Fold Hydroxyethylthiazole kinase.
Amino acid sequence: MSASTVTLDDIVAAHRQMRERNPLVQCLTNTVSVQFVANALLAAGAAPAMVDNPEEAAGFAGIADAVLVNLGTPTAAQVESSRLASAAAREAGKPWVLDPVGAGGLPWRTQVAVELLANHPSVIRANASEVMGLAGARGASRGVDSSARAADSVDAARSLLDRAEIVAASGDVDHVVGQGSLVKLGGGSALLQRVTATGCALGALTAAYCSISPNALIGAVAAHAHVAVASEIAARSTSRPGSFAAAFLDGLDTVDESLLRELVRLDTA
Amino acid sequence: MSASTVTLDDIVAAHRQMRERNPLVQCLTNTVSVQFVANALLAAGAAPAMVDNPEEAAGFAGIADAVLVNLGTPTAAQVESSRLASAAAREAGKPWVLDPVGAGGLPWRTQVAVELLANHPSVIRANASEVMGLAGARGASRGVDSSARAADSVDAARSLLDRAEIVAASGDVDHVVGQGSLVKLGGGSALLQRVTATGCALGALTAAYCSISPNALIGAVAAHAHVAVASEIAARSTSRPGSFAAAFLDGLDTVDESLLRELVRLDTA
Amino acid sequence: MSASTVTLDDIVAAHRQMRERNPLVQCLTNTVSVQFVANALLAAGAAPAMVDNPEEAAGFAGIADAVLVNLGTPTAAQVESSRLASAAAREAGKPWVLDPVGAGGLPWRTQVAVELLANHPSVIRANASEVMGLAGARGASRGVDSSARAADSVDAARSLLDRAEIVAASGDVDHVVGQGSLVKLGGGSALLQRVTATGCALGALTAAYCSISPNALIGAVAAHAHVAVASEIAARSTSRPGSFAAAFLDGLDTVDESLLRELVRLDTA
C-alpha cells in the first residue's frame, strides 16, 4: 500500500545490470514455451539453461543466478525437479520465481504450486485468475474468475505474502504487490495475449531481473517494464500474431534506457 | 459418394462462430508442434490448453470444448493421458480429433492409435499414408505408401467410418470422408510441407471447428478451408519456409468471410 | 594435422546430394530445439522424424538415413532411447551424431555422453567447452572453460578420436578434427549465439550431411559450411534475434552452389 518504492531510475539501472552481467537462468518450464522462453532471455540480455531433470535440477540451481519454475505442462519428473530446484535455490540464496499456470482451475497442479510455496519464492508471477486460484486453494480467496482483472487480485496477492516476497499479477495494468508496496504498470500491447508463452517469458525475465536487482520488488517491476516496452515497440511494426512473436523478441533486444524513459508507465499513486 | 453436404455458406458460418465463441481446445500433442499448435489456435480465434498429464487429462476434457490427440512424439505418460482424455471427451459428448502421426510406419504407435479408436473420434485427421496405415493395421487396407495421394486413401478412410464420424486426408486436394459424403478441397500452398507442424495445427483447428459447427463434417471441412486460405495468403508474401511459418500464423488471423468466399475451392462434384 | 582433405568442390557436391536425396534424420533432441531442428532440416533439404521413445527408437534407426542424439534436456526415457537408437544406427551402419550439450558442466549427462561413445558416433558436434568437458570426463583434458575457443579444444578433440570418427567444435572459427586432418571454417554470424537451438540445428544437419557424403569429414564440414553461409545471408537482412531466427531458416533454404562458392571460408592451411 502507500507509495511505490520503485522509480524509473531503478528500472533503468536494473536494465543496465542485465546487459552487463548476463545472468544465467535455470528454467523448468512447459513444452509450449520452452523455446520462446530461451529466446526471450537471450534477446533481453540473459542466458537460459533448461535443466529440468531430477538428476541435475538441484545441482544446477547452485550454479545458475536464478531459477524459474513454470507449471504449464508438468510431468511427474518435472514436478520432482521443481521441488528440488526451488529448495536448492532457497538454500543457496538464489532468487526463484513461481509461475503457477492454471492454478485454481486444475486441482492437481494447484496442489503442486501450494506445496512449492514452502520454498518461499522470491516472486509469484501469474495472471489475476491464477493469483486468486492459488490464494483460494489456501482458503484465503473467493476462487477463480477467469475474466479477473489484475486489480481484482490484489487482496489475494497480499494473502500470499507470507510465502512469497512479491506477487506480480499481469494484466492491462500489471499489479506488483509486496509488503507495504503496490506498483502498477500500464502500457504493453494486447497482442501479447494473441501469442502463446509471452507470460512464461515474463516469468523468466522476472527471475533474471531479480538476480541482478537490489531487491525482488525492483526485479519484478523492471521485468514487467521491459516486456511492456518491448511489446509496444513490436506492435508498431505489425498487428498480426505470427509476425508479432518475432517482433517482440526483436523488441526485447531493442529496449534501451531511452525507450524505457519514454515508454514506461509507472503508477506510483 | 453423392453430393457434398457442405456449402461455402456453412464454412463462412462456422468461421463466424469460431471468432464469436473462442472455443477452448485441450491439446495432447507432440513436442515438435506444441508451440505452433498453440499459436495457430490463438491466431485462428480459438484458445489452447496443453493439458496432457495423466493426473489432469480426463478432468480437463470435461472443461474444454474439444480435445486433440496427436501421436507425434508419444511418451508412456502421454499415451495414458490420451486414453483418459479421449474417453472423457466421449463420455462428456465433446468432439475429439485423432491425428495418428506415423501410423502404419511405426508399429507401437499404430497399435496405440487403433486402441484409441475405441473411443470413437469425431474426426481422424491425417495424411493419406497415415489413413491407409491405420486402416491397414485393422486389416482393411493394402498397407502404407509414403507417396500416397489423398484420393488413393478414400477406401481406407471409408473402412474407418465404423469408428470415426469423419476421416480427413490432407494432400494437394484434401479429401474429407463421412457416411455418404465425400468433400474435396483444393487450394492451399506447397510451402505447408516445408514447415513442421502445419498438419498438427490443422488437427487442432479441426477440433476447434467441430466444437462450434453443426456437425463434424462441416467442422472438418471448415478447418481445412481456413488453413488452405491462410496458406495461400501467406505464400503471397514469401517463398521461403522460415518467414512462411510466421506469415501462415498471420494468415490464420487475417482470414475473414470475404477471403473465404474468394479463395475456398470446394469440390462438390 | 597436415592439409585438409575437404575441398570447396566436396562441399558443393554434398549440398547437391542433400537436395537430391532428401535424407531422413531421426532426431532425439531437447525440448527447446525440437521445432527449430525440424524446421532447419526441412529448410536445408532433409526430412526430420522426432522418434525418441524407447519403444520405437531402435527400430526407426534402421529406417532413417541418419540419427542425431542431442542431450540438451534428457529425460530418463530419452536417455534409454538414445542408447537404443545409437546402438541400432551403429549396427545398421548408419551415421549418427552425438551433441553432448552441457558436457563437462553437468556430471550426470556427461556420464551419459561418455557411455554413448561406446556406440562410436560418426561425429561429435559441440562447442569447445563441451568437447573439452567430454574429453575431461575421460581423463584426457584439463576440464571445462566456458569461454574456450574452438582452437583451444583441438587436443581434447583428438583424444576423442578413439571413439568418434570426427570431432567438430563450433566457434568463431569452426574446427573439424579427424584422424590426420584438421579443417577450419570461418565466416558465419555472431547472431547465431543470440538464438537458441542454432547449434542443435547444426548437429542435425551434420547427421543429414553424413548420410549423403563420401565420408564423415566431408559431411561435418559441409554441414558447418551450409550453416555459416545461411547465417551470413540472414544477417544481411536483420540485426535482431527474433527476425534472425526466421531469416536463418530462409537462408538454409536459399543456400545454393553459387552462394557456397562465394561465401565458404575454408582454411586448408
Q: What stands out?
A: Chain C touches chain B at residues 31, 34-35, 38-39, 42-43, 48-53, 55-56, 59-60, 63, 75, 77, 245-254 (CB under 8 Å).
